[in-house]
Amino acid sequence: MTIAGSDSGGGAGIEADLRVFAAHNVHGTVAITAVTAQNTLSVSAVCALEPEMVRAQVEAVTSDFSVAAVKTGMLARPRTVEEVGRLAQAGTLPHLVIDPVLVSSTGYPLMEVGGTEAYREALIPYATVVSPNLRETALLLGGDVREFEDMKAMRDAGVALRALGATWVVIKGGHFLADGVTASNAPDVIAGPDGVIEIDGERITTRNDHGTGCSLSSAIAANLANGLSSLSAIAQAKEFVANAIASAAAWELGGGHGPIDHFGWGATDPTIPLP
Fold first, then answer.
1. Is residue 71 part of a domain?
2. I want to staple 129 with a disulfide (CB 3.0 to 4.6 A). Which of 76, 77, 168, 215 is the partner?
3. Any idea what the CATH number is for the domain that residue 223 is in?
4. What is the pLDDT of residue 274?
5. pLDDT tens, 71-128?
6. Range of the domain at 167
7. What are the residues facing 35 on neighbouring strands?
8. pLDDT per position as a tens digit, 192-235
9. Burial code of 100-135, b = ≥16 C-beta within 10 A, e = fewer?
10. 178 lies in some domain
11. Smallest Cα–Cα separation from 218: which of 161, 175, 262, 253?
12. What's the whole-model pTM score?
């Protein structure tokens, strides 16, 4: 199940999550938290649903389906974060993967004031996995993003975030810098019950990277639903997203940051016409 916002451009949010679920052979259910007006260039408007409606969707799904794993994306309002936290506390949201969406990559705020505190206090303590990027890590820990742009700082941040109650923390290094410039690699830091490890990855040069955070968290949730251990679910999700980025690297959908290739169309059959 995904509890997240809708992306009118189809690259992220609910739309990306459902494609990821399908790619992992699991049935996806949804609770929509907000409707956004966005494309590959920017977010121009957000309309958040009332928390009571979000809860009603979750309860409608969980009363009928055996939900194996849940991911959260854009929750939009602190009261929605708190409402989802109450559902998690009650045991309604198994294998909870939290992507703490706070701001878009173009700087548009995707959470109302007070959301960071709500995540820290009401939701992260119930997470199986929480997967912030560097900017979200800085907001959750009350620092400047530049403080987290080296491996030691990322490792320390993983430990600090895990102290909030999550079982596993994945700090995504897609925007990692080395000596003030974009690094040639894309390292992620994983903090878990047995300590902190790093999973490195090759950085792929492409403008098609919209929805990578949504896709990683939904892939982790799908892997957990399929019975993988948490560490295996995380590692395989990172590989899935890397392959999806590589497969869509040459696509030309929109004038900005296009979507990634969740189904491997570009990799499985080079004769298929690409966008």
1. yes
2. 168
3. 3.40.1190.20
4. 53
5. 999 999 999 999 999 999 999 999 999 999 998 877 788 899 999 999 999 999 999 9
6. 2-268
7. 6, 47
8. 999 999 998 888 889 999 999 999 999 999 999 999 999 999 99
9. bbbbbbeeeebbbeebbebbbebbbebbbbbbbbbb
10. yes
11. 262
12. 0.93
